[in-house]
Amino acid sequence: MNQLLPLFVLLPVIGFCVSLLVPAKKENTLSRVVYLSMGLHTLLVFAYTIYWWLHQHEIQQSQSINLFNSAHFQFNFILMFDLITATYLLTGAYLTMLVTIYSSYYLHRESGYKRYFNTILFFYIGYNITVMANNFETLFIGWEILGITSFLLIAFYRNRYLPVKNAVKIFSIYRIGDVGLLLAMWMSHHLWNESITFQKLQNAELVSAQLQSHTWIGVFISLMILMTAAAKSAQLPFSSWLPRAMEGPTPSSAIFYGSLSVHLGVFLLLRTHPFWEHQFSVRVIIALLGLSTTILSIGIARVQSSVKSQLAYASIAQIGLIFIEVAAGWHTLALVHFAGNAFLRTYQLLVSPSLVSYLIKEQFYKFVPRQKSFEGKFLSNKLEYTLYVLCLKEWNLDAAMYQYLWNPLKKLGKRLDFITLSSLWWFILPTYFIGLYFLRFAEDKITPFAHAYLPAVFGLIGLILALKAFSERIHARLSWVLVVLNHGFIALSVSYNEHFDFFQVYIYLSGVIVAGIGGFVVLNWLKKTEMVSLDRFHGHVYEHPTAAMLFLIACLALSGFPITPTFIGEDLIFSHIHENQIVLAAFVALSFVIDGLAIMRIYARVFLGPHIKNYHSIAYRSS
Questions:
Q1: How far is residue 32 from each of residues 117, 149, 208, measured CA to CA in Å?
Q2: What is the DSSP-derived secondary structure letter of residue 67?
Q3: Which residue from 62, 151, 352, 471 has the least number of CB within 10 angstroms?
């Protein structure tokens, strides 16, 4: 039984690799490849689950694959299968199979037909890794794959303005969740002194003994997990991103934001429940968050004019109720609720195009206005109208995110206009090489007082460079170089923080340097042939698809996607930050958030959106 678990990941990987080889014009061949890989996987999931339920009904665990090992750190790829995994796998396999069949007809003769199915299969790889993960490291691999495939599918209509803009906006929310997961992994390593498996977390005595002596560390990990779950499942204050994600094709909206991806925040809470179930304050926070999200979302859903937005907020409301069920310990009810909500929202989104035409006919022939609303029976007119306007404005959730999160970062970045290419040569690079020289050859000459503060100083410099890269509005190459230097200063700050094998830094920087050089070469080549800046969308993917693909790969590698050693290196870097160094951890975490946003913003501005040349047709702003 255990030996079969890797097949759940291997089958979608094989299907994805084969689909890459199929020519874009061969729609029938591509659809057959997708049907075959998804059909075999669905049959395997159902057969394995039935056999597991009838015979063993115990937690299954695959053999651990050690990706990196050192004296104080292990990065293991390990899978597990239990009731939670079975529910998510069964639901995911069946719904993804239905959506791929639907998509083959819905997207017939669409120019991005192959790109869509490549992305769906890649998403399914990430989904299977996530729901079968037996530790945070394995889960983070799938989590990152889900994030980038979400970005690509929202921006599927990449010659339009709003899909691309909303894709960047939603990727920024996902990035916040990624950092919450990174910080939870960081503190978890210090709490357990190992890469703890989710199976071990079910040992109540072990968890209780650790939390009794490390209460605040336990609360911190739990809150980081909650932040990650809230960002992924569109709970407050992140709820406004889900309707914006509906700019992608209807089938991808159904599979991502109606059924599977949006429920992975619930999955994370269920998987880590044995860790935080005895922390009463955390359970109260989860329940209150779910309750407040449900109340606000119900009101917002009732006043939406778009059927997709209505369904998005209705789904958010149901997920809020599932958060309450998880906090209360009703796991079976939460799993049933997840499956029911997933099937219902998928059906509703898939029939939504037809439903709109039916409602238009009914509006002309059978519509009778309601005399009194539900709220009007219990509230005064003034309060009713106030709530109506607030719900129309979606309680200003989107504006609040801009006002209190992104706009302050942009304003701070604009004050860094003194960072130019000349200042890089004369000040920043010399500072880096001086720090590198003292680290390698003259560390004994640094006073203990200076040595104590140098990690935070270098971490702050890296954060400043990331802020400037994020706020840069003109020079794409400058923004790209700043992101690369940000990674260099992070590595330098942590190297001053603790003595360890420099091979670990080389692992981290190897992917950064290769991706940095590759991305800069693409931008430099494009600068010689086209107009390149960050003040607007340019849409160069239309005429330079190969350059766009190469640059996207460089972006993924530079941001620590699981295709380069940088992914493992990020976790390695965090493992050398001590549990009492909150300031340094915050600098590094914020750097990872902001440089990821800067990277994807460069890609979106340069290659996506309406084409800058006026002899190309300009698409509508929205899909």
A1: 11, 22, 51
A2: E
A3: 352
pLDDT digits (tens, 9 = 90+) for 555-579: 998 888 887 888 887 777 777 787 7
The 10 Å CB-count burial string (b at 16+, else e) for 447-480 is eeeeeeebbbbbbbbbbbbbbbbbbbeebbbbbb
Burial of residue 199 (CB within 10 Å: 0-12, 13-18, 19+) is middle
If we measure between CA atoms, which residue out of 125, 23, 155, 106 comes closest to residue 604? 155
Q: φ and ψ at 411, to 5 degrees?
A: -65, -40
Q: How far apart are CA 570 and CA 559, in angstroms?
A: 10
How does the average pLDDT of the chain come out, rounded? Answer: 85
- Looking up tokens 């890609």, which residue turns up? 603
Amino acid at 242: L
Longest pairwise C-alpha distance within the chain: 86
Please name the residue ranges forming H helices in 56-135: 83-106, 113-132
Measured CA to CA, the distance from residue 200 to residue 135 in angstroms comes to 10
Q: Which residues contact 126 (CB under 8 A, 6 or more apart)?
A: 141, 142, 143, 144, 145, 146, 149
- In angstroms, the CA 413 to CA 139 distance is 33
pLDDT at 333 over 90: yes
Residue 529, judged by CB atoms within 10 A of its CB (0-12, 13-18, 19+), counts as: exposed
Distance CA 572, CA 74 (A): 9
Give the phi and the psi of residue 2 in degrees, each rounded to 5. Answer: -65, -35
How far apart (Å, rounded) are the C-alpha atoms in residues 487 and 466? 9
Closest CA to 601 of 551, 543, 567: 551
| β-bridge mates for residue 69, sequence order | 74
> Is 482 in contact with 611 (CB distance < 8 Å)?
no
Q: Hey, which residues does 66 pair with through a beta bridge?
A: 76
CA distance 290 to 535: 39
Strongest mean pLDDT among 172-181, 215-224, 284-293, 421-430 = 284-293
Q: Which amino acid is at 461?
A: I
CB 157 within 8 A of CB 163: yes
**For 306-320, b where at least 16 C-beta lie within 10 A, e where not — what string?**
ebbbbbbbbbbbbbb
For residue 98, give the nearest of 316, 351, 357 by alpha carbon: 351
C-alpha 168: how far from chain center? 11
Q: Quick check: 571 and 75 in contact, CB under 8 A? A: yes
**Would you say 469 and 595 are in contact if contact means Cβ atoms under 8 Å apart?**
yes
pTM of the model: 0.91
